[in-house]
Write a structure and sequence with these properties.
The complex is a heterodimer. Chain A is mostly helical. Chain A has two domains: about 260 residues, Orthogonal Bundle (ABC transporter involved in vitamin B12 uptake, BtuC), CATH 1.10.3470; about 90 residues. In chain A, about 70% of the residues lie in helices and about 0% in strands. Chain B is an alpha/beta fold. Chain B contains 13 helices and 14 strands. The chains are: A mainly alpha, B alpha/beta. The interface between A and B is large, with 46 and 49 residues.
């Protein structure tokens, strides 16, 4: 693929992003905002994980601190403060940075599992504090504020928030890309690969790790600030474990080794959660399946798979999509359909609503509608069809001992046992 | 008549009916509740209540021929999810929101509603809070556009203390053991505030972390040291079960008085340790006499289970909403302000007595049942030989607490 095609693609994407508010509804714009916020958060997390090889499982703490700090600043603006509204995310970033500096100094004394445990402990500490300190964190009700216009700039509509978020997302992307390519970024990656060697070269590894931690926390805090601007509220729920878990999920699914991987992951899981929750109440289960499949068969994530595939096409080593890929894809779709059928059937007949229907029909089990088809849950057929589709599809996708799926994702023949995931090298 | 004519004669009114039905614009109601995540049990509890109220209302013509369409939105139990679902529901055309989650979720819903109304004063939306008991919703955060359809810890503590005092079960020495979050802190404040009114002494207070402690024996021993006769708690779920078990196995002679003992599964999990403890209930079929029993039977026939805990609050919310709608005259679009007025002024029949919405702070005025866990209860729960035996049914006037002075409602 030539450079011109890439530039053209970039221009089309940019035009689409700028024009989105013109044809997207309120819900679409909100989704776009949430995707960008999740992407910035995941990028911040991946600075620590992908670049420095430090797996933090408590990043919600810095995200939440950024949200709260920004809400307080918004409130100050509302009461006549002079801070410009468009620069609000910097407040979140600053709060995240300061907190990250302190937390990072302690956490980075250790690496690997011990580091991860310290980050979890710090996140739990903040979470417990937020629950008890009602004056600062607003208790159960949380705290609220409202966006204030700044000069000629109006920030009342979702569209204006979209542009603000878009600009900040691009700034973060460029800054992080620059950081990655800078000499400092090289030292950080050096620490990931072999910390001892970096120390022998004369670098203070602990100081570098502390700074990276603080920068990562700052980007997470900035994401939190963007959330504050979008939702205009903050509550202690932000500090819960779900936030810390989702950012790991986004990064793993998207690919930690690729710069834009976390963005891809954030876009996929956020859209999935957004639409999935109105389609099926079992969407977290499906997301879990996607996560497990990714870890097992494509540890480099979707971003890694795309990159590998693009390299293969560029080197002329294979076509963009081969016959085997199509078979694997068909198998994966079949297996997913079978799984969805089984899960939805089980879930529906176990639900309160279904129990109510049985009661109102005086004990008759009504048919269950899935994929716009009615299934009778008391006959063995739907269960058999689901099982056959799941097993058959999986076998097709995995190619009976000759895995097609890994090749589909990794873009190379055969499983790759040699690769190390970030965080394992420490 | 010619067969073809017959067919036409039959088809014309049918078509006309079809046109009329198509012209009827549904009144969209968004029901925001957690359906996934660690709080999914809350959403599951509310599911059967929606059809039970809305189906007969629509069958009887709905709002002047317009059916009410309730859509459930899954807020995933997070404030961010709640904010997202609000934006989605508003985009879908809903202007009536039912917030059926915990206090943080209801606070998020309320903030979203307030800002929507601030930005769209000609197209306002209202929030009906089903289960959030935070004092702020009818206190500092009270709003013309939001209504609370449950109690506060103050209302429940007051009802418990009143009835237990009358029957002599309360005693002189009272202890407060609370979960350490807003509701527990409110319950503690209520327990302390009512000491003079009901002539007891608060001999001690303690708070515990929520859903983190597995062994409550140290809390039980701390309480035993001051020998209380009654212990007030706002604890729920596994916390409450573990507290009851710890107290029972340590032989603590005090009674517990709480608000969440009738959540599904609590009696079965606590076992005989639950016996003799008091709870303030929203609904108890036995206390409602024939009417109460008929309501329970109708609900059971339609849904396969009895209404318990916050399910009753959802039933009350939907019943009062549909009842108020009947009083709003026909218009091209449901006028929200007329609905608010109807909500404030109408009395809604309910098996335990009339329900009304106080205009000053939009706090529901409702009858409460103070019950004791007993083997003599008319209905046994959760497959145990225990149930809730009503001690006294308090009317809406008796349970009412004064308007929170922090509530400064702007009526526009």
């Amino acid at each position: 693929m030539s450079r011109i095609v890439l530039v053209l693609l970039g221009l089309v994407a940019a035009a689409a992003l700028v024009a989105l508010p013109a044809f997207g509804g309120l819900a679409t714009l909100n989704l776009a905002n949430k995707i960008m916020i999740a992407a910035v958060f995941a990028l911040g997390f991946n600075l620590l994980w992908g670049q420095a090889g430090l797996p933090s499982f408590g990043h919600a703490a810095y995200y939440g601190v950024g949200t709260f700090a920004t809400i307080y600043m918004m409130d100050a603006i509302d009461r006549g403060g002079a801070f410009p509204t468009p620069l609000l995310p910097l407040v979140g970033a600053g709060a995240g940075f300061l907190f990250g500096l302190v937390a990072g100094w302690f956490a980075t004394v250790r690496s690997g599992v011990y580091f991860a445990m310290i980050t979890v402990a710090i996140a739990e500490l903040v979470s417990a504090l937020a629950q008890k300190w009602e004056g600062l964190f607003g208790g159960e009700a949380g705290i609220r504020s409202i966006r204030t216009n700044w000069g000629p700039l109006d920030f009342q509509s979702t569209g204006s928030v979209y542009y603000l978020t878009l600009v900040w997302t691009l700034i973060v992307l460029l800054a992080l890309y620059g950081l990655q390519r800078s000499p400092f970024g090289l030292v950080v990656r050096g620490i990931r690969e072999r910390e001892l060697r970096i120390r022998f070269l004369g670098y203070d590894a602990h100081r570098v790790k502390t700074v990276v931690f603080a920068l990562s926390a700052a980007v997470s805090g900035l994401a939190g600030g963007l959330l504050a601007i979008s939702d205009e509220s903050a509550s202690m729920v932000l500090f819960g474990g779900a936030g810390s878990a989702f950012v790991v999920l986004n990064t793993v699914i998207g690919g930690a080794g690729v710069f834009l991987g976390p963005v891809i992951g954030a876009a996929l899981t956020t859209s999935f959660a957004y639409f999935g929750s109105s389609l099926s109440h079992f969407w977290p289960f499906y997301l879990g399946v996607v996560f497990v499949v990714t870890v097992l068969f494509a540890p480099e994530g979707i971003g890694g798979a795309i990159l590998a595939r693009w390299r293969r096409v560029r080197d002329g080593a294979g076509p963009l999509i081969g016959l085997g890929d199509l078979a694997g894809l068909a198998g994966a779709v079949l297996a997913m359909a079978g799984l969805v059928l089984l899960i939805e059937l089980t879930g529906t007949i176990c639900s309160e609503a279904y129990r109510a229907e049985i009661a109102s029909l005086k004990g008759v089990w009504p048919p269950v509608r899935i994929f716009a088809i009615s299934f009778a849950p008391l006959t063995p057929w739907p269960w058999l069809v689901g099982l056959v589709a799941l097993i058959g599809g999986s076998r097709l996708a995995l190619g009976a001992g000759r895995p097609i799926l890994p090749r589909l994702f990794a873009g190379r023949p055969g499983p790759r046992a040699d690769q190390t995931r970030p965080g394992e090298s420490a | 008549m010619h067969p073809v004519l017959k067919l036409v004669a039959a088809a014309v009114p049918a078509l006309a009916l079809g046109v009329a039905a198509a012209a009827a614009e549904p009144v969209k109601v968004a029901y925001l509740t957690p359906k996934t995540g660690s709080m999914a049990f809350i959403g599951a509890m509310y599911d059967p209540t929606i059809d039970f109220v809305v189906k007969p209302f629509n069958a009887a013509g709905g709002w002047n021929g317009n059916p009410v369409e309730v859509s459930v939105y899954d807020d995933q139990g997070t404030t961010q999810g709640a904010a997202d679902r609000f934006k989605q529901a508003v985009a879908d055309g809903a202007r009536i929101f039912i917030g059926a989650g915990t206090s943080p979720l209801a606070a998020q819903n309320l903030a979203d509603i307030k800002r929507w109304n601030q930005r769209n004063p000609d197209d306002p939306a209202i929030l009906l809070i089903v289960g959030a008991e935070g004092v702020n919703f009818t206190g500092a955060d009270c709003s013309y556009y939001s209504f609370r359809f449950t109690t506060t810890p103050y209302i429940r503590q007051n009802a418990l203390a009143k009835v237990m005092k009358e029957t002599g079960a309360l005693g002189q020495k009272v202890y407060s053991l609370q979960p350490d979050y807003t509701m527990g802190r409110d319950m503690e404040a209520a327990t302390v505030a009512n000491a003079k009114t009901y002539g007891y002494e608060v001999v001690g207070t303690a708070r515990h972390d929520v859903f983190k402690i597995k062994d409550f024996s140290s809390f039980v021993e701390k309480a035993r040291a001051v020998a209380p006769e009654t212990i007030f708690t706002a604890g729920g779920g596994s916390d409450l079960q573990l507290i009851l078990q710890a107290a029972s196995s340590a032989g603590l002679p005090a009674k517990f008085a709480g608000m969440f003992l009738d959540e599904p599964g609590n009696l079965a999990a606590a076992g005989p340790a639950a016996l003799g403890n008091y709870t303030a209930q929203i609904f108890n079929a036995q206390a409602g006499g024939e009417k109460g029993e008929a309501y329970r039977a109708a609900f059971n026939a339609a849904t396969g289970r009895d209404p318990v805990a916050f399910m009753s609050n959802s039933l009350i919310t939907l019943t009062m909403l549909t009842h108020a709608m009947k009083q709003v005259p026909a218009a091209p679009k449901l006028p929200i302000k007329a609905l608010i007025t109807a909500m404030e002024t109408s009395k809604t029949p309910w098996p335990l007595g009339d329900l009304s919405m106080r205009a000053d702070d939009h706090q529901l005025q409702l009858p409460l049942v103070v019950s004791v866990v007993s083997k003599d209860a008319a209905r046994k729960l959760d497959g145990t030989d225990m149930g809730f035996k009503p001690v006294k049914l308090l009317s809406a006037e008796e349970t009412s607490m004064p308007v929170n002075p922090e509530c400064k409602m702007v009526r526009n």
